[in-house]
Protein: Homogentisate 1,2-dioxygenase
Amino acid sequence: MDYQTGFLNHFATEAVDGALPVGRNSPQKPAFGLYAEQFSTTAFTTPRVENRRSWLYRMRPTAAHGKMRKAEEVGTRWLSSPLDCGIADPNRMRWDPLAQPDGDVDFIDGMTTYCANGDVAACDGLGVHLYSCNASMKDRALQVSDGEMLIVPQQGTLHLTTEFGRLDVPPGHIAVIPRGVRFAVAVDGPSAGYVAENYGEPFRLPDLGPIGANGLANPRDFEAPVAWYEDRDCTFTVVQKYQGHFWTVTLDHSPFDVVAWHGNTTPCRYDLARFNTIGTVSFDHPDPSIFTVLTSPSAIHGTANCDFVIFPPRWMVAEDTFRPPWFHRNVMSEFMGLVHGEYDAKEGGGFAPGGASLHNQMNGHGPDAHSTQKAMEADLEPHKIDDTLAFMFESRWPFRLARQACELPGRQSDYDDCWTGFPKAELP
Ligand SMILES: [Fe+2]
Structure:
């Protein structure tokens, strides 16, 4: 698989020599009878530094399709905010991994919404989903008009075919699919992972401030596909998620017929092992914002609609410091997942790879009693936390739970118990 590297670069790629116009975007007659189509994920008037658009040169215009049909049978467990039966529940939640599905289930139908916030119609907030699937999408593509898809595979490589080209996304990588891009997901077998469906502003790299010009996720490590197309006449279904509902339309050809494209809005993947992790070399545990990979800003300056934050392998060297994540109450709300290994605040068990937890706005959380006691008594030699990859979707909005997430058999009714057994402080 070929990739071109960079984040928000102005890429230019063609699968057939001469397909990409030179010096103009919409020539009178593009080469080979291709059709020029602009694809915008920011408004025309967005300041240039934040403006995102690409030009696609395709065999047929996307507009050439018939009436779309509302499809009640598709994605029945993939819900949107505001959730009809959403419960604003302050309780801390934790779940075991999703079960593997019975029968053949693809990426769309394998999606289960756990919680959501904001409002799809207001282009604010996000949906948080876990997928568990075992079948490839066959002659079926997905277009999520409601938001950008940040996909975090936990089990099984996702083979993505998109209008912009193809991406392989194994566990340890993430994929970001801009709002509205058509894509299909093929899998090799049982596959599972997490999705933030970002209704808000597109993800971007966080500012680095005093860190300087380098660090955290470096732009060159993001990988975009090169142009790839298929010239295939067949019955093809495009599923569109639009304002929380699913619609389908049947084409007589594959929609992956973009022969060349240029621009700066594109699907991409990123290997989380390339994240340059920064931490203290003196004392105190830094705020986890130091681990931000991507951020979707909200209208309130400095406050994220969604931060994607990872807890990767790293050295711990702080002196006279309680090294695990500290006890915390947060105006932001935190949804966590675990790709592999063990999370250093939950060494007492219960947070398994593929599992999830939710700590909603202003509700106390932190290390379990086992991890706390161990950290308070540890010899503070430098040591490396290895074989671990946890992450967090953190949002300014409290999450409302999907009722189906409350009713999952893997929801742990005893999660509060991990914060029992703390000895009381003894005053003089
Ligand atoms: Fe927290």
